[in-house]
Amino acid sequence: MVQDWSTVTLQALQNLWQSFLNFLPKMIGAIVVFVIGWFIAVWIGKLIAEILKRLKFDKIFEKTGWQEALEKAEFKMTMSEFIGAVVKWVLVIVFLLAAVKILVGASYVGFFSKFVEWLPNLVAAAAIFVVAVVVANLSEKFVKAVVGKMKVGYSKLIGSIVRWAIWIFAILAILAQLGVAPEIVQILIGGFVALIVISCSIAFGLGGKDLAREFLEGLRNKFRE
Fold it and tell me: Is the pLDDT of residue 48 over 80?
């Protein structure tokens, strides 16, 4: 009986040791892939942040007040550093997925795979955000300059309206890109467009008739000149 117990125990230990030996190469491979991937991700993130700094990318956000808002929120990063950090963590997740696949096999990484497939939507949303900042800023300045040259007044008001209209559309586009309640986002977009149309109609028909008259008179005088 004692011999049977010792045989069973020895067999169990041998099986455990053999399982460990079989698992060891996978573990080492996963660690190597993740560590190398980590250094690559950090390097690429820093490289992108440095390139954006040299291209004076942060100045765009300084003019729009975003940098000041981030500092007030104790977000101690420039926008270049933030984008570099986003790229770094995206790459870290990709290499982590590769390491997990090596370690436990593809059948256990369904969630990670779905997340990685969703990452392009996050990148696209970030791109929409950056484009919105640039376009909103430039559009506001352009509208202010054009309306100001016509000397019809309200240039700041019209410029602000254009800026916020672009921002609202950008926010809705970002939500749609991220797949956040797409049906609700579509309703909001339709409602926003309807609100603009109704507001413009009311403005021209009621409270904004003086503004509309001054604006149109300015345009007419400008073309006469």
Answer: yes
Residue 17: helix, strand or coil by DSSP? helix
Residue 153 DSSP code: S
Categorize the per-residue pLDDT at 213 as very low, low, confident or very high, splitting at 50, 70 and 90.
low
Average pLDDT taken over every residue of the chain: 69
- In angstroms, the CA 43 to CA 60 distance is 25
Number of Cβ within 10 Å of residue 177's Cβ equals 20
Which alpha helices (DSSP H) does 55-109 contain, by range?
A: 57-64, 66-72, 79-104
Domain positions in the chain are 1-108, 123-225
Give the separation between CA 48 and CA 80, rounded to whole angstroms.
Answer: 8
CA 147 to centroid of chain Cα atoms: 33
Q: Which residues contact 28 (CB under 8 A, 6 or more apart)?
A: none
By CB neighbour count within 10 A (0-12 exposed, 13-18 middle, 19+ buried), where does 79 fall? buried
pLDDT tens digits for range 9-20 = 667 666 666 666
DSSP class of residue 107 equals G
**Residue 61: Cβ within 10 Å count:** 21
